[in-house]
Amino acid sequence: MKNILKTLVVLVSASLISFAAKAGELTVTGSANASYVINGGLNNTGKAIGISNELKFSATGELDNGYSWNYHTELDMADGGAASNDDTALVITMGDMGTVGIYDAEGGLSTELGYGIGAVGVGQDYANTMTQIGIGKDVSSDPHVAYTTPADLLPFGVSLSVGYAPNTADGQGNSFKQSGVVNASDADGQNATQYKVTAAPIDGLKVGADLYTVGGDNITAGQSESSGTVYAQYAMGNFKIGFFDAYHENGVADKYASASADTATAANGDRYNFSGIGIEFAVNDAMSVSYAQEKYERIDKTMAATASTQTESSVEAEADYIQVSYNIGGATLGLALVDTDNSDYTANREERKSIISLGMEF
Q: Is residue 122 part of a domain?
C-alpha cells in the first residue's frame, strides 16, 4: 500500500512539474559591476573599491484568453554585502487593451531620468555628492498597481500610464497576504497616484511628463505633497541632447509650522526645483562621451503666526557630470566625474567624485 501511495505521489508531482513547465518559461539575466571611487574637493575625502551584482529571474506564460503574463524579481547586493530580493512585478499584457501590473519596488512612473544623458549613467541617479537631494517622489516607493495604454493606440507615439499606491506607509517588500500597517492621516498623505505621458512626435524626438499626488492628507493651511517632471530628448546622427525640469513639494499641514528653522540638508525643505541639460556623442560603436549640468534648488518657506505674507529663502547647488564609456565586447569600462558647488545646499561647500567602473552583462 505504501508503495502504491508513493507511486501516486510521484506521478502527481511529475504532472505538476510538467504543467508548470508548459505554463511558463524561466530565464535568468543580470549584471556584475566593480568600481573604484575617489572623493575629493574641500569637503569630501575617501576612497573605496566596491563590487555589486544583480540577478533577475523572469518567468513568462500565456493565459487561455490570449493574454500573456510576466513575473520577475531581482536579487541584489545591498550596502554592506547583504543580499535582498526587490524589484518585483507581475504584469499582464492584454493585447489591444494595454497592460496591468502589480509592482513592489518596481514599475516607477517618474520621468526625471527621461532626458537620458550619460555615457555611463544618467546624472545624479548614477552618481552624486549630495547627502539628500530632495528629488521627486515615485509610486515605486510603495507597492502599487499601474495601467499603461498599448503601443500604437494613440497618434504621435503617445503612451499614458497611471499608478496607484493604496498605502504609502507600507514601504517595500510586502509578502503575499500581508495586511499592511495603519497609515494615519498626516501631511504626507495616506495614498498616492502618479500619472505619466510620453510621446515620440517626430523621428529622434522623445518628450514626456509625470505628476505625483497624494490623498488622505490632513492639510489645513499648508501645501499637499506633490512632484512633477517634464523632459525632452533629441537624437540626430551620433549626437543626443536632452533637458528636464522638475519640482517636489513636501507636505506641510500648516503653513505657520514651516517657520521652524531648517537644517543644511534637504530634509526640511518645503520645495525643491531641479533642472538639467546635457549632450552625448557616440564616437564610434564602442565609445561614447557625455557632459551634463544639473541644478538643484531648495526653498524654505517661512510665515510667522501673525504675518500676512510669506517669505522664502533658497540655496542652489550645481553639479557638472563628465562621463566616458568604452565597450570591449561584453564588458563596459566607464569613467565618471562629478563636481558639485554648494553641495548639500551648503554655501561654498565643494565636493567632487571620480568613479572608474567595469560592468558585465549576462
A: yes
Fill in the DSSP letter of residue 261: P
What is the DSSP secondary-structure string of 268-321? G-SEEEEEEEEEEEE-SSSEEEEEEEEEEEEEEEE--TT-SS-EEEEEEEEEEE
Q: Note whether residue 307 is domain-resident.
A: yes
- Return the CATH number at 129: 2.40.160.10
**Buried-exposed string 58-90: b where 16+ CB fall within 10 A, e elsewhere:** bbbeeeeeeeebbbbbbbbbeeeeeeeeebbbb
Tens-digit pLDDT profile for residues 125-145: 999 998 878 888 899 999 999
Residues in the chain: 362
State residue 265's pLDDT score.
46
Identify the domain containing residue 135 by its residue range. 23-174+187-361
- Do 164 and 139 form a contact (C-beta atoms < 8 A)? yes
Q: So what's the pLDDT on residue 8? A: 31
Residue 2 placed within a domain? no
Contact by Cβ (8 Å): 214, 168: yes
Task: Tell me if 180 is assigned to some domain.
Answer: no
Residues near 305 by beta carbon (within 8 Å), at least 6 away in sequence: 256, 259
Q: How far apart are CA 134 and CA 329, in angstroms?
A: 38
Q: Which residues contact 127 (CB under 8 A, 6 or more apart)?
A: 121, 321, 336, 338, 353, 355
Query: What would the pLDDT profile of 323-334 be if each residue is shown by its tens digit?
Result: 999 999 889 999
What total number of domains does the chain contain? 1
